[in-house]
Amino acid sequence: MTAPRISKDGYYLGIAKEVARRSTCFRRSIGAIIVRHDQIISTGYVGAPRKTRDSMEHGFCLRDRLNIPHGQRYELCRSVHAEQNAIINAARAGVSLLGGDMYIFGSSPESGAAISAFPCFICKKMIINAGLNRVICSTADGKHMVFTVEDWAKAWREGDILDDTHQYG
User: Fold this and answer.
1) Of 15, 54, 67, 97, whose Cβ has the fewest other Cβ atoms within 10 Å?
2) Do 147 and 135 contact (CB within 8 A), yes or no?
3) Integer Cα distance of 125 and 9 in angstroms
4) In Å, how far are 15, 60, 79, 114 from 144, measured between CA atoms?
5) 134 Cβ partners below 8 Å, 6+ apart?
6) Contact 27/66 with Cβ under 8 angstroms?
């Protein structure tokens, strides 16, 4: 008897989990992959811009040192978010993201426990403008949630960005 075959969403989230292992953030390990036509076209993890020093190399988290709560003052972080890096890496390779799906896995670097890896508002705006179709996020209960990017845009048209119910931080 063989184990049940993993779903496509579970398969791609598992790959995003491995990508997250490259993260250089003390607060969160996040990995993102973008899949289009059932092919991985880009990956990204939380890390400092290329050719700069990350928090691990510095030996401390700047936002922790400044007592900045989660979900605030991202401009003072050394890292680029996993979602942003996945979009940037596709652009560097000249790959279109239109109609693709993004898979995001997140965990706590200290315990390894899964977290609800919902994108921040900056990442959501980038995902909408990149033309992605769906975003599949790991959740703290070890499962995942699937979001349709068009639903985000519709909700923000009808309400406001601050009315968003699934936000990071």
Assistant:
1) 67
2) yes
3) 23
4) 14, 31, 24, 10
5) 101, 102, 146, 147, 148, 149
6) no
CA 52 vs CA 58, 67, 80, 120: distances in Å: 11, 23, 11, 23
Note the pTM of the prediction, 2 decimals: 0.91
SS3 114: strand
Inter-residue contact 78 to 52 (CB < 8 Å): yes
- By the 8 A CB rule, do 61 and 74 touch? no
pLDDT by residue for the chain (169 residues), tens only, comes to: 788 899 999 999 999 999 999 999 888 899 999 999 999 999 999 999 999 988 888 988 888 889 988 778 888 888 999 999 999 999 999 999 999 999 999 999 888 899 999 998 889 999 999 999 999 999 999 999 999 999 999 988 888 766 666 555 4
- CA distances for 40 relative to 54, 127, 147, 156, angstroms: 26, 16, 19, 29
User: How far is it, in rounded angstroms, from Cα 56 to Cα 42?
Assistant: 24
Burial readout 92-119 (b: 16 or more C-beta within 10 A, e: otherwise):
eeeeebeebbbbbbbbebeeeebbbbbb
